[in-house]
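WARN retry 2 of 3 for item q-0093 after timeout on previous attempt; input resubmitted unchanged.
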Amino acid sequence: MSVIRRNRIAIGLAAGLAVVLGLGVWSATGSGSNNSKPVAQTETDLGVLGDYGDVGQPPVLQEPAAAPETPVQQQAPETPAAQPAAQPPAAAPVSTLRLVGKSVDKMGQVVQDGDGRTLYRFDKDVPKPEGKSNCNDQCAVTWPPLLSDTIPQLEGVDQKLVSLITRADGKKQVAIDGWALYTYSKDPAPGKWAGQGIGNTWFVIQPNGKRNVECLPPGVTAPAA
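OK item q-0093 returned
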C-alpha cells in the first residue's frame, strides 16, 4: 500500500472519529434531546420566541383578575322622625278679679270685689237651675254686672257656690249660688252700700248667696226669706 493511500485512510478515520465525537458532545449538552427539562420562559422570552416563529402564536397574556363585586349594602330602614313632645295643656287663665267675703261694722256679712266695692243681688233674677239675669239695658247701667270670663280669686267665699252665668248679650257674669252679682253706680265710695233695699228688690249679698237685710232704709221692710 502506498504512503499516500495510507494517509488518506488515516484522514478519513480521523474525520469519522471527529463526527462521532461531535455527535456525542451534542447529545450530552441536550441541544437536540426531547428529554431535556424545559427552561422557564419569561413573558419577554415568549415575546422573543414569537418574533422568531418558534411558538407560532403571539403570547397570550393573562388579564388581571377582576376585583370582586362589592355586595350591595341594604339601606338601613329610615328612622321615623321624632314626634314632637306632647305639650302640657295650657293652664287656665288666672283671673285678676277677686271676691272677698267678710264682716263689716253695722252691715255684718257682705261680699266685696277686689277694690272694696259692695256687691248686690236682684230679687227679680232667676237663680235656678242655671242662673239668669233680668237686669239689662238701662238697668245694667245703673247696676253694672260683675263680668268675668273666669272664676275670680276667692277669699271668704265657698268655691262650690261660685259660677258664671251667660247674660242676654252673651257676656259672662259672676254669680253666688246662682244669683248674679252687681255693683251700684251710685255708691259714694268703696265699702258703702247706698243701694241697700232699693225698690225692695236690691240687697247686699252675703257669702252664702242670701240677701243681707241689715241697715235697711226707712220704709223698706225685709222680704220674706
